[in-house]
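Morning!

This is the sequence you dropped in the shared folder:
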Amino acid sequence: QVQLVESGGGLVQAGGFLRLSCAASGRTSNGYTMGWFRQAPGKEREFVARISWSGGNTYYADSVKGRFTISRDNAKNMVYLQMNSLKPEDTAVYYCAVGTVFSTGMLNLAPWGRGTQVTVSS
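The structure's back. Tokens below.
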């Protein structure tokens, strides 16, 4: 089974930027979609972005479209989330995912990592 380790979170001011990274280790497979979810206090975990294995297809939640960019490096088993123009409502724990496309989000087939905290101040 693959293990996912997120990093890169921190405290930033509104309008700032942050780059999250996710490293996949253990038993990995080719061909899977990768993506990001987030969970704010008192809210359900929500889909943020996904990217196909080739990187040719990306999809974003409406709330982050135009501000966030997902990318991946298959040679390094890494997926990234570049977050620009951050807003306070982006504050959440961000989780990496690996799996398949599902509706307007994706299905994570790996155990959730510990996530990385992103806090955006006003």
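Headline: The CA atoms of residues 91 and 119 lie 5 Å apart.

More detail when I'm at my desk.
O.
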